[in-house]
Amino acid sequence: MKNLFCKLKNKLGAAAVKSRSILAGNAGEGYIDTAIKILIAVVLGALLLAGLYALFGETVLPTLVQRIKEMFNYAG
């Protein structure tokens, strides 16, 4: 019986040490930082694409179409 209690005490001590080391570790802390960086990159990329689409849609493309029509207008 005394031997059983000794084994149980050793196993509980080992489990306590293992759980303490798991709770004290910060091994998964980098995942949150990486997720935030990816989210920021996606948002900035979307804003950049929206800005380029607005620029080309309203400024560059109409003048480009007008120049092409003038270039091929042989009736002059």
UniProtKB/TrEMBL annotation:
It comes from the Bacteria. The keyword Transmembrane helix applies. The keyword Transmembrane helix applies. The chain crosses the membrane at residues 38-56. The lineage of its organism: Bacteria, Bacillati, Bacillota, Clostridia, Lachnospirales. Keywords: Membrane, Transmembrane, Transmembrane helix. This is Flagellin-like protein. Pfam families: DUF6133.
